[in-house]
Amino acid sequence: MELVYDEAAPESKQVHLLPCKIHYDGASNFSKYVNIEKNEENEMQQTSIHGRALNGKHIKLPEKFQGLFVTKSQSASEKAFVTSTFESFTAWNYDKLPSKNDVAQKVWDWISVSEVLHADDDSDKDLE
Amino acid sequence: MAQILRAELNNAEGFESPIVNNDNTKNLCLVSPVPDICKNDPCMLGIDEAGRGPVLGPMVYGICYCPLDYEAELKVLGAVDSKSIDDKKREEMFGKLCEHPDQVGWAVEVISPTTISNDMLRRSKISLNELSHNSAINLVKRALEDGVNVKEVYVDTVGPPEKYQDKLSKIFPNIKVTVAKKADAIYPVVSAASICAKVCRDKAVSNWKFKENIEIVGDAWGSGYPGDPATKKFLQANLDPVFGFPQLVRFSWSTAEKITDEKCAPFEWSDDEEDGAVAKTASIQSFFSPANSTKQSIQLSHKFFTERKMKRCTDMF
C-alpha cells in the first residue's frame, strides 16, 4: 500500500474522539449541535450529545508526530491519499473527567518505550 | 451549580430577560429580595414545580414564602391552584405577588432540559424524583441562608408523600414539614409557589433561543407533553439525522429516545470500565474446575498494549 502524502493537505482544526461508535459516515451538523463549553482554568471541556454528559480534554500530538486522515484511492487499489492532517484532538469521556488513565492520554507512553526498544544502541554492537 | 440571580421583578415579563440571557443548557436560579418582615416573623414556605412531565423545555421549581399570618391575604390575592387557571390569569396573579415585596418572597430554579437528560443518563443515574428533591431542598436552604425565618414548609409531593416528608424533616429538623398530594390546591402558599414556577416555565419555553441556530419547522410545539400531537409533530420535524434533537428536548424521555433510536444514526456508547470488569473477573466455578479443563485464553498481546487499546496494524484498510 502506497501512501500518497501531499504536503498541502489542509490541517483540520477540530478533531474529536468520541466515546461512542456512530454508525454513520459523512458530513454532519457537529458544530451546530455540539455546543462545547471550555473551562479555561483546568482546561476541561464539557458538552452533551444525545443527552449524555461528556467531559473532554484537548490533547496535542507529541512532537514530530502528525495525525493523518487517509482515504483509499478509488481507482488504484494500492494507493491511499492523505486528505487532511491534524496536530491535536479533543478526547471525550462519557460522564467521566479526563485523567492520565485514559487511553487517549497514556497511549503516548508507547513512543518512549518504542524509542528505547528500537534505538540504535552502540553498547549492543559492542557485544556482537 | 446553577447561576444565582437576585431579581426584583414587577411582573411575569420580568422573567424574560434573565431567561433569555442565560445559557439555556444551564440551570438558573432567580431569587427575589427577602422582605424584612420575613426575617423576623415566623414564615410559611410553599414548594411546587412546573414542567415535570413534558418532553420539552426546563422543569422549574418554585418556592414562595410569607409571614404565617399573611396566608389569608395570599388567598385574597388569588393564590389558587395554578393548573385551574389560564396563562393570562396566572401571569396576573404573579404580578400581584410582585406588588407585595414587603410581605412575599419567592425563588425559582430553572432546571435545563440538558441537565435533566444528563443526570438521568449518567453512569449512575439520577432519577427525576431525586433531581426534584434536590432542587426543592436547595431552594429552601438558600431561603434559610438568606435569613428567612421559615417555620412551616408545604410541599406538593413527588413520589410517596410519607417518604418525602421524612427526608425533608430530617434535613430541616426545626421546620414543620407537610408533604401532601394536591398541596397546590390546598395551601395558598403552595399555590403561589406553583404560580411562580409555572409562569417562569412558560416564559422559558416561549422565549427559547435555539443554540443550534436551526430553522424550526412549524412554529409551535404545543404543550410539550409527549401525548400532544403538536409536540409529536415538532419532534418528528426537527430531527437531525445524527445528533437528534436540539437541547430544548429531554433526550432521556422515552418518547424522545424512541424517535432517535428509530430515525437517527445508531449510537453505541462505550462503557470501558464495565467491559474491563467483565473480562477480568473469572467466574467462581472456574476456580474449582480442574486446571486443564478451563480453556486458557491465549494472551495475544502484552498488558501494556491492551491497556492502551493498541493493536498491531499491518493493513491500513
From TrEMBL, chain A:
<dbReference type="Pfam" id="PF08615">
    <property type="entry name" value="RNase_H2_suC"/>
</dbReference>
<dbReference type="GO" id="GO:0032299">
    <property type="term" value="C:ribonuclease H2 complex"/>
</dbReference>
<protein>
    <submittedName>
        <fullName>Uncharacterized protein</fullName>
    </submittedName>
</protein>
<dbReference type="InterPro" id="IPR013924">
    <property type="entry name" value="RNase_H2_suC"/>
</dbReference>
<dbReference type="GO" id="GO:0006401">
    <property type="term" value="P:RNA catabolic process"/>
</dbReference>
Automatic annotation (TrEMBL), chain B:
<dbReference type="InterPro" id="IPR001352">
    <property type="entry name" value="RNase_HII/HIII"/>
</dbReference>
<keyword id="KW-0255">Endonuclease</keyword>
<dbReference type="InterPro" id="IPR012337">
    <property type="entry name" value="RNaseH-like_sf"/>
</dbReference>
<dbReference type="InterPro" id="IPR024567">
    <property type="entry name" value="RNase_HII/HIII_dom"/>
</dbReference>
<feature type="binding site">
    <location>
        <position position="48"/>
    </location>
    <ligand>
        <name>a divalent metal cation</name>
    </ligand>
</feature>
<dbReference type="GO" id="GO:0032299">
    <property type="term" value="C:ribonuclease H2 complex"/>
</dbReference>
<dbReference type="Pfam" id="PF01351">
    <property type="entry name" value="RNase_HII"/>
</dbReference>
<keyword id="KW-0479">Metal-binding</keyword>
<dbReference type="GO" id="GO:0043137">
    <property type="term" value="P:DNA replication, removal of RNA primer"/>
</dbReference>
<keyword id="KW-0378">Hydrolase</keyword>
<protein>
    <recommendedName>
        <fullName>Ribonuclease</fullName>
        <ecNumber>3.1.26.4</ecNumber>
    </recommendedName>
</protein>
<dbReference type="InterPro" id="IPR023160">
    <property type="entry name" value="RNase_HII_hlx-loop-hlx_cap_dom"/>
</dbReference>
<dbReference type="InterPro" id="IPR004649">
    <property type="entry name" value="RNase_H2_suA"/>
</dbReference>
<dbReference type="GO" id="GO:0046872">
    <property type="term" value="F:metal ion binding"/>
</dbReference>
<comment type="function">
    <text>Endonuclease that specifically degrades the RNA of RNA-DNA hybrids.</text>
</comment>
<dbReference type="GO" id="GO:0003723">
    <property type="term" value="F:RNA binding"/>
</dbReference>
<comment type="similarity">
    <text>Belongs to the RNase HII family. Eukaryotic subfamily.</text>
</comment>
<keyword id="KW-0540">Nuclease</keyword>
<dbReference type="GO" id="GO:0004523">
    <property type="term" value="F:RNA-DNA hybrid ribonuclease activity"/>
</dbReference>
<dbReference type="InterPro" id="IPR036397">
    <property type="entry name" value="RNaseH_sf"/>
</dbReference>
<feature type="binding site">
    <location>
        <position position="156"/>
    </location>
    <ligand>
        <name>a divalent metal cation</name>
    </ligand>
</feature>
<dbReference type="GO" id="GO:0006298">
    <property type="term" value="P:mismatch repair"/>
</dbReference>
